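Re: the request from the purification team.
They wanted to know what the chain is likely to look like in 3D before they choose a buffer screen. I agreed to run a prediction and write the result into the notebook, where they can find it.
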Amino acid sequence: MLPTTISPQLAKVIEESERLTASERLLLARSLLDSLLSEDALEEITWMRLGLQASEKDWDNEEDAIYDEWRKHDGVSEG
């Protein structure tokens, strides 16, 4: 359970973060979340991303282009 009060240091960080742009706050949030992940979890995520990139390369070719328009091929409306 999270504490109901925050430390003065955290309050200062939150106050300072409000001066950041949206992009900067997103980068800060990502950095904070990444800092919570274990080394093993980070390694697993890295391997998953590499696998996804490899799969995307395999499926991005002319032979499989028919699957890019599966709705049209199968008669499914986009709406």
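For the purification team: The longest helix spans residues 39-59.
Please add any questions underneath this entry.
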